[in-house]
Amino acid sequence: MNMISDPRERLVVIGNGMAGMRTVEELLKRESGRRYQITVFGAEPHVNYNRIMLSSVLAGDKTVDEIVINSREWYDDNGIRLFAGDAVAAIDRNAKTVTAVSGLCVPYDRLLIATGSRPLAPAIPGLGLPGVCAFRDLADVDKMLAAARVHKRAVVIGGGLLGLEAAWGLKQRGMSVAVVHLMPTLMERQLDAAAGQLLQRDLDRRGISFFTDGQTEEIMGVARAEGVQLADGRVIPADLVVLAIGIRPNIDLARAAGLEVNRGVAVYDDMRTSDPDIFAVGECVEHRGEVFGLVAPLWEQAKVCAAQLGGDETAAFASQALSTSLKITGVDVFSAGALMAADENDDEITLRDDSRGLYKKIVLRDGKLVGAVLYGDVADGQWYLQLMRDNVDVAELRERLVFGRAVAEAVSAKPIGPDFAAMPDDAQICGCNGVSKGAIVGAIRGKNLASLEDVRAHTKASASCGQCTGLVERLLGFAAGAAAKPAKKTLCDCADAGHDEIRHAIVAQKLKTMQAVREAFGWKKSEGCHKCRPALNYYLLCAWPDEYKDDSRSRFVNERVHANIQKDGTFSVVPRMWGGLTTPAELHAIASVAEKFNIPTVKVTGGQRIDLLGVKKDDLPAVWSDLNKAGLVSGHAYAKGLRTVKTCVGSEWCRFGTQDSTGLGVKLEKMCWGSWTPHKVKLAVSGCPRNCAEATIKDLGIVCVEAGYDIVVGGNGGVEVRVSDSLARVATEEEVLEYAGAFLQLYREEAHYFERTAPWIARVGIAYVKRRLVEDGEGRCGLHARFLHSQTFVQHDPWADRAKGADAHEFAPLLALAEA
Amino acid sequence: MDLVWKNIGALSNIPAQGARRLCIGKSGPPIAVFRTGEDRVFALIDECPHRRGPLSEGIVSGTTVACPLHNWVIDLTSGLALGLDEGGTPILPIRIVAGEVHVGLSLAAGESA
Ligand SMILES: Cc1cc2nc3c(=O)[nH]c(=O)nc-3n(C[C@H](O)[C@H](O)[C@H](O)COP(=O)(O)OP(=O)(O)OC[C@H]3O[C@@H](n4cnc5c(N)ncnc54)[C@H](O)[C@@H]3O)c2cc1C
Ligand code: FES
């Protein structure tokens, strides 16, 4: 045995999660913290990751790698021994050791318990069935994703923050989702009834169904979950049941070790438990009767605990007012403090605009703000929170406060709220990532950051839940002064206006050139930049199809040269095959071209086309000329425009086919080819509900049924798989063509440049699209007519023009200088 | 090293707000010759400092070009990447004589023009 002992004290951490590792990080920042030899036990077989972002992983907005907080290297570099996947089974306070499930026994001088919490389970039968899980860790997310791949129906039990984020994520993954909630309104602990109802209405519109006042009695099923049974007799079928009814501090180890526990492990202000050598932080603790479920206070605990471990005995934890929000794209909810007046001495002031889905309520007590609930517009949330924390006297602002900061300050003529100059450097700005004012100001000044995106990229502030965005923006204004860019989502850095504003002005003010648009909006760069030019070019082309002349210099290389640039600078060429149909003559022509020009790779694409890869730029016009001779034209595989219409064989050959899907595909492609759109567009037509053409993950899909045609929109099969929303069922091919043209035109006229149909529909809602296309028949005809009109200007083959010599300068080098 | 001026033809051969590629024999790196909207001309080695994307295929705005592969923005006057990206590509001298563009090629010892 090695008798030379390490002179450092031994710190053992139980729980490799957010609070525990944050404490270790804080400790390592201190000189005095280096005196520990640190060992970490984690029950999960992973490094420490950002648990908050599990919702984003579930919804497909983030990958697992993107939510890692501390990588393996971090543990190694800091000399931390990590036992991941080995839970601690017991603490022996007399011997001062912990023993893990694996049998490993490690002595400690100081011990930190950071075991977090456990999901609560209702006392009902069926909990053990496969297909039932909680929503707490990566293993749960893996289970949900696996279920979403093969199953269709999910039930989430619990309509709180976690349950709703789970429901939204599963919906994004293509499941149909129902939420069962015990109470009459959603998130009743964070929202008052009015805001809860608005939330339910919005989520309902996004396709999630709700069973409120719903008491689950049993999870039914034999070999796996098949449904849930409610106390009132209702039965909801389900292949996946997610339990999200709440959490309970994980105190078993502490209790078994004889530490003082209540609901959580009892800690004093110095984060010590009843044993002075044992500390605890995070969701497992109870401090002055309070338990925790959000990360903001945990960062404060981590800081205090690290200070104490480092020998600073004055550090003390005090809990502060907290705020919550929901991480569901497009649903803005904020709440902090009291939800309603406690008695007649309190005042509630509300502002409500139902048609815009806006709701604001503030609660006042003794001239101070003690609570705020916001729905629809949460921009002022952090300002309210700061007023509460700073205990600001707001009596004078009483009438204006509910209208938000801008109105309140305009009248009082002095800024109210965070005084950044007076704020200490270690004041926390971003709760999720625990970023302090000092760190943000340091990065802004040290690295000359000028936009919110830059600050996010460099400090992670406001990069998780986004609640503190407003505060970070104002801090940016404070630290960078005039250099800070406006926070509004603008078209690009050249402009202060957003996409919608500019599109509207192009039509309303009859702006017909890029120069006119740039002048109307006071562009900062006279020629614009590579971000705004392609967008403006498209917007003008869409608004003025018969007048605007396309500017090839404002197009990305692929659209300029009508082929796809590859990573080695060669190009790929994809001829059009209408509806995926081809002929022996076409195949002969493709084969000869491939041979003649030594094209190295010939591949069949997912869109039922043939891709010739590795064509030299100089050869493009000759390749096209040969293809043209066989009747093959550009497949626009490079365009933000119609790419392909994929079909299956349909009633002509298939024994299941209900309609002529191939023929319809050809008609659709003939109608739509050549169109320019905000981003690429893919169509498919399936001949029967077996859906062999995968129509439900296309921008526009048609599924033929006995009675006609189901039209679905907004699907996507790429990185972020999204199953389409159903738009309408129609009886004839003519109607299909009308709906398709109208849908594409609505997308062309209203989506932002670079926005696929899936995020566009997620943003505006399928209800809106239905209103424009299904409920408004006249509007639909108009859109369809505008689509056909603009098509008359673009349906000529760009390859034919270039094979004849158009834009020759694009394809030949300027001059080949001979060497020596 | 000697600087040799090569006449590469009329300015009008290069599209405004665009570029053409020059090829020097088989071994030399490709050169991109840019013409801005205001008829200023710049020559750069046609390789993006990021992953050698062909800058000559990028969108030219003012005196910058955006690389077609991942949108790094390169300043044509210095060859340096702008914004938060770091790196640069060599630039070559240019002069315009009677509407014709001349590029200054530096030839290492042993080579001749
Ligand atoms: C899906 C989801 C979304 C959330 N969203 C938000 C949000 O938007 N905003 C917000 O503020 N908060 C949010 N939270 C809450 C936040 O994640 C928690 O407050 C935070 O993770 C708690 O940190 P902790 O360290 O106390 O616990 P954890 O992060 O859970 O870490 C505890 C760790 O200890 C391990 N452990 C337990 N027992 C043992 C043992 N005996 N031996 C070894 N290891 C053990 C556990 O496996 C776990 O890895 C969310 C939580 C979830 C699940
Ligand atoms: S190669 Fe130029 S940006 Fe990547």
Protein traits:
heterodimer, A: alpha/beta, FAD/NAD(P)-binding domain, 5-stranded parallel sheet, 25 helices, 21% strand, B: 113 residues, 4-stranded antiparallel sheet, disordered C terminus, binds flavin-adenine dinucleotide, binds FE2/S2 (inorganic) cluster
Structural class of chain B: mainly beta
Shape of chain B: globular
The CATH topology of one domain in chain A turns out to be FAD/NAD(P)-binding domain
Strand content of chain A: 15-25%
Name the biggest interface.
Answer: A-B, 28 and 38 residues
Number of strands of chain A: 38
Relative helix content of chain B: under 10%
Q: Count helical runs of chain A.
A: 25
Main structural class of chain A: alpha/beta
Distance between the amino and carboxyl termini of chain A: 73 Å
The CATH class of one domain in chain A:
Alpha Beta
Separate helix tally of chain B: 0
The termini of chain B sit apart by 12 Å
**Biggest β-sheet: strands ordered side by side in the sheet of chain A:** 3-2-1-7-19
Largest sheet of chain B: 4 strands, antiparallel
Description:
Chain A is α/β, with parallel strands linked by helices and 820 residues long. Among the domains of chain A are: 9-117 and 249-309, FAD/NAD(P)-binding domain, CATH 3.50.50; 132-245, FAD/NAD(P)-binding domain; 490-554, no CATH class; 559-629, Alpha-Beta Complex (Sulfite Reductase Hemoprotein, domain 2); 642-791, Sulfite Reductase Hemoprotein, domain 1 (2-Layer Sandwich), CATH 3.30.413. Chain A is 31% helix and 21% strand. In chain A, 46% of the residues are buried. Chain B has 113 residues and is mainly beta. Helix content of chain B is 0%, strand content 43%. Chain B is built from no helices and ten strands. Chain B has a four-stranded antiparallel β-sheet with strand order 2-3-4-8, with no helix packed on it. In chain B, strands 1-10-9 form a three-stranded antiparallel β-sheet, with no helix packed on it. In chain B, a hairpin with a 2-residue loop joins strand 5 (59-61) and strand 6 (64-66). Mean pLDDT of chain B is 86; it is low at 109-113. The A-B interface holds A 454, 457, 525-530, 533-534, 553-557, 561, 565, 567, 569, 809, 813-820 and B 6, 8-9, 13-18, 20-28, 33, 37, 51, 54, 57-62, 64, 66, 68-69, 71, 73, 84, 105, 111-112. Strand 38 (815-817) of chain A pairs parallel with strand 2 (18-24) of chain B, so a sheet runs across the interface. Bound molecules: flavin-adenine dinucleotide and FE2/S2 (inorganic) cluster. Flavin-adenine dinucleotide (FAD) is lined by residues 14-20, 41-44, 51-52, 54-55, 87-88, 114-116, 135-136, 162, 165, 250, 253, 282-283, 293-296, 298, 327, 432, 465 of chain A. The site of flavin-adenine dinucleotide has 36 residues of chain A, from helix 1, strand 2, helix 2, helix 5 and helix 8.
